[in-house]
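Retro notes, structure queue

What went well: the backlog is down to a handful. What didn't: a couple of records were mislabeled last round, so from now on we paste the full input next to the output in the thread. Example, using Lipoprotein from Thiothrix nivea:
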Amino acid sequence: MDKKTYITSRRTMFKGMVFLLLMQGCQIAFAVEGGVEYRIAWDANDSRYHVYMRPTSTPDPDLSLTAQVTLRVPHATAGNRFQVTDIQPKPGTAWKLGSNVPAPVENPLYDYLSFNYDADDAHAFVFKAGEEQEVFSFRNKGPCVGDVELIDNATDPFSQPSGNSVGTNPRNQFSNTGWGSINDNDYRGNYGEPASCSAGCGNTPVAPLADHVYYRVAWNISDQRYHVYMYPGSTPTRNLSLTGQVTLKMPHAANAADSFKTTGIQSTSAAIEWKQSSRVNAPTEDTGSDYLSFTMNLSDPQALQWQADQELEVFSFANSNACLGPVVLMKDSDPFNAIPNSADTNPGNQFTNLGWGSADKNNYAGNYGCEAVCIDPELDSDNDGLTDAQEAEIGTDPQNPDTDTDTLLDGEEIARGANPLKADIVRLQARVMLQGAYDSKPN
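Corresponding output:
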């Protein structure tokens, strides 16, 4: 007997035993009141999302049969999508990603991911009242797109008793015979906060220091530009800005023609000129990244009107080549920032204002905010006639040319005035009939 046959036989035998136990109701103790709550958390140490469960009581008997955990994540397109990988289950259990619905019409700002439990061992959880345990964890292969949340069965627009636009049942669910019958849903709600993959990923730095300034870069989908911001921890006693440098890093392109190309640098002040002063592609310290440094030239040292805890935009620019991935500010700890570096440059972020100290002091203290994640306005990942940006607005899947599986491309349906999220019934029925004809076998 090979391993696959053994596992299948074992699961069949196990499920049969559970059924027999349930049929012998007279020999099983009465179920207790209670259920289980869910929580999700991000762990920066291993860069993984961890899913936990906490029972409100100890089930008797403790036989866990089925479960579903559904998360919602901010919707993104192409290579910026949230992509589940490396699911690691609690020993004795098996979890898989059973459903992935991108940007449904009920809530197009989110993608919905449902994980299903396969009961290899109904006793695997060993629930004890009030004791939390981790049930599985996973990684996101894509960039950090924002907070990951467990759905609320009662309030989430995609989880309604009347059904949803794609015909799925995304509701969180758990079934344990010790809390009721097989058909009961023993899920009792969520606890904890949303899982944030980047602490302090907002428009303000955490606990900013006086006499220092912090940097942020952001992507604006409306103007297709990168915007650079600065945040002062205090108002300078004498507002005399002298020098400044901002260094960004982005993915290195294998094809030089696709490399990030800065264009249209615009300063927010007529008295300040920002220019790209240095570029180093794929240095030995980080061959997967390119480094671009921008420096500031002032005709008026008071051009930047600093106010404590008030963010200022300082300049913006565009990329005239392909969208390769997230753009980030270089950190002080970046390997390319160790002087001397392989390119014999000084890429460190820097700012000096005499109101925050002497002329030789670097007032730059760190970065805040999220990665600047671009969306290529011309990219059509699935070649369906709609750009990824258009599909993000419509709610169709940029990785699937026929989102509603009715044999019409999404772009073709838009051109016809049809709904690419709702299958053309006539075409769908024809396809089913043809499929049946091909699949049928003579007796």
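Agreed that this is the format going forward. Reviewer comment attached to the example: Residues 1-29, 434-443 have pLDDT under 50 and may be disordered.
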